Amino acid sequence: MHDPSCDPSEEFLGGRSLIAGPVAPVLERPVLRVRFSDPDEFAAELRARDPDVEKVVRVAFRWRRDPQGLPCRHLSVVAGYLRSAREGVLVLSELVYYAGEVWDGLNEEVSARTRERAEHARQVVARAADEQFVKLAAGVYRTPDERGPIGAAA
Fold first, then answer.
1. Where are the beta strands (DSSP E) in the chain?
2. Quick one: average pLDDT of 48-63?
3. Which of 11, 82, 97, 125 is the most exposed place for a label (fewest CB within 10 A)?
4. Nearest-angstrom CA–CA distance, 40 and 38
């Protein structure tokens, strides 16, 4: 299965993070991204090293139009959480799971299986967060040096 949501320019191991909340001050720290493509591996990481910066796991469904103009959208599940590492480094643990294609009025069986895979991935993350007493929230994290948001509609 080809994953059009994977953009090599999004893959990096370092940079600067900028985190701002409605009340919290802006925080600038070195950032390390740990990216997973398997929901079970992401859940295992969450169980082993849970968030300590913000007790939240953000989960979103990312929808992307087909780059060749086919009448479908590509569905991925994006999840992430923040934790502190040594020497002030901020770690963004992130899941980017490609579920498949959702066709506009065609291939209803393929579309249904894609939606089921996406919902299953979301449930795997939700269970692990619940076990760690961590809240689920919509949205995605991104760093200022990224071209755009990691995910779209939550």
1. 16-19, 27-36, 56-65, 72-84, 90-103, 135-138
2. 93
3. 11
4. 6
- How far is it, in rounded angstroms, from Cα 24 to Cα 12? 26
**Closest of 85, 84, 61, 83 to residue 73, by C-alpha:** 61
Q: Look at residues 150, 152, 8 and name the one whose alpha carbon lies nearest to residue 80.
A: 150
Place of tokens 């579920």: 99
Give the start-to-end residue ranges of the domains of the chain: 12-138
CB hemisphere CA count around 149 (13 angstroms): 15
Q: What is the pLDDT of residues 69-120, one digit of tens each?
A: 999 999 999 999 999 988 778 899 999 999 999 999 888 999 999 999 999 9
Structure tokens at 93: 């643990």
| R_g (Cα) of the chain, nearest Å | 16
Q: Tell me the torsion sign for CA atoms 98, 40, 79, 150.
A: negative
What pLDDT shows up at residue 2? 46
Q: Which tokens in the block code for residue 46? A: 């969450």
